[in-house]
Specification:
The protein is mostly helical and 463 residues long. The chain is 74% helix and 0% strand. The radius of gyration is 22 Å and the shape is globular. It starts with 11 loop residues before the first helix and ends with a helix.
């Protein structure tokens, strides 16, 4: 096996906070509540939790094990474990997925920063739902404003990644994740004091099993994969930075608990408020940017509630953009090193971390500008099957690239490394018991691929 990277997390807590931050993001606070609202509340929640245990847990373990055993990011991990380049396509898929996701994810993050800025300035004072709907359309169509607010989190993320892993990512994750949880608990406590909040709590936690349909199951599986950020190599990269003494199974469980806790807290914040003020929980993607500001305006301490909530969104978004960009930065570092040392003749010097951060930031900035222009600017008339570039980036990554990436990893460890799978990769974690190894390999070989194929077909409209 290859030598491990010299840079790594200095503590177990640091890795758990960083990995949980990678999983926790807008998918938990923005997407999870409206998907749950559209699919029966408690019925969706129970199916989602089962999907996390059956599919999320083994796939998170798989990414950690690949990274820890190889000591490489997604670029070198598959070659190091397999001994050849047959699976190198999966490395490139992980990198491309991370890049494309950043193209539209930073735009959505820009919306969050814009709304935080406006909440601080009391912009929403006196706004109703119709005015907020029109305001969102106005804001999202303002090209210079959106480019500026979308590039701001790129600069902030690059500033964190400029430092070594333990100085930048680890230190900030130790600060942001506890802060995020504290702010969510404060917000949840505030919302639960509203009259009528108990109706929202019943909607979210009371399970009506008659509402569990094939559609709900497919939506829950898809949200599980999206929320946990599985299939793009982020946890492979973090696994490569994992201390040798760290237990992969225990770390995976803790990451899943934190990620699920944030999603449930988001539901506790949103559904009681939605029902307390008579809104529809199935409002869709506009739930956060239109309905919630309208609710805040009707609450006491409206300014504080709005600022607190949009601060939550910005922090959650940044914890994910850090891991997304780290995938690309680590990939550029390792790929340039491999190219520089290829063959007997040297091909120049490899890029160091600072150069890689600048290269990735510039490329991501270009994608962001293209995404914004495709919605509101010079390229807004260019569509393909009715979708602009921003929409295509979202659709292609969620419906095609992430499922294929997760499927590739499960097949790689479950089938292509059957001998190494139990004696090589799994030996990266001595805490895995023999009986659990057999279950783990069975799930990777059969249950996970079947689930991913079903999600893939459902996303494409075949099912």
């Amino acid at each position: 096996m290859s030598e491990r990277k010299s840079t790594s997390f200095s503590s177990k807590v640091g890795l758990i906070m960083a990995a949980a931050g990678s999983a926790v993001g807008l998918g938990n606070i923005w997407k999870f509540p409206y998907i749950a609202g559209e699919n029966g509340g408690g019925a969706f929640l129970i199916v989602y939790l089962l999907c996390v245990l059956l599919f999320g847990m083994p796939l998170i373990m798989t990414e950690f094990l690949i990274g820890k055993r190889s000591g490489k990011s997604a670029f070198g991990a598959f070659r190091a474990l397999n001994g050849n380049d047959r699976w190198q396509w999966l490395s490139w898929l992980c990198m491309m997925t991370a890049f494309i996701i950043m193209g539209f994810y930073f735009v959505v993050t820009g919306w969050c920063f814009n709304y935080l800025f406006e909440a601080v300035r009391h912009t929403f004072d006196g706004f109703g739902t119709e005015a907020l709907t029109a305001h969102f359309a106005t804001v999202s169509s303002n090209t210079p404003r959106m480019i500026g607010f979308s590039l701001l989190p790129v600069v902030l993320t690059a500033a964190v990644l400029w430092f070594d892993v333990n100085t930048g990512i680890e230190r900030l994750s130790k600060l942001l994740m506890p802060l995020l949880l504290l702010m969510m608990l404060l917000m949840a406590g505030r919302v639960l004091m509203l009259d009528g909040s108990n109706v929202g709590m019943r909607f979210f936690f009371q399970t009506d099993f008659s509402k569990i349909t094939p559609k709900v199951i497919m939506e829950a599986m898809g949200q599980c994969f999206f929320s946990l950020s599985i299939g793009m190599g982020a946890l492979i990269t973090y696994g490569a930075y994992m201390p040798k003494s760290q237990n992969v199974t225990g770390t995976s469980v803790q990451v899943i608990i934190l990620d699920t806790l944030v999603a449930i807290l988001a539901g506790i914040i949103i559904f009681p408020a939605v029902f307390a003020f008579g809104f529809n929980p199935a409002e869709g993607p506009q739930l956060v940017f239109v309905v919630l500001p309208a609710i805040f305006e009707q609450m006491s301490f409206s300014w504080f509630s709005g600022v607190l909530f949009f601060s939550l969104l910005c922090i959650a978004a940044l914890t994910s953009t850090i891991s997304l960009m780290e995938v690309a930065v680590a990939f550029v570092c390792e790929a340039s090193e491999a190219f520089a040392n290829n063959g007997k003749k040297k091909h120049g010097k490899a890029f160091n971390r600072h150069q890689s951060v600048l290269i990735v930031s510039a490329l991501v900035g270009g994608l962001i500008v293209l995404c914004v222009l495709s919605m509101t600017g010079a390229f807004s008339g260019l569509t393909f099957f009715g979708h602009n570039l921003f929409e295509w980036f979202d659709e292609v990554t969620a419906c095609i690239m992430l499922p294929i990436g997760a499927l590739g990893m499960s097949l790689f460890v479950g089938w292509c490394l059957p001998k190494n799978g139990e004696k090589g990769v799994l030996h990266a974690d001595k805490g895995i018991k023999r009986w659990f190894r057999k279950i783990y390999i069975f799930v990777l070989r059969w249950l996970v691929p079947i689930a991913i194929i079903l999600i893939f077909l459902n996303s494409l409209g075949v099912l």
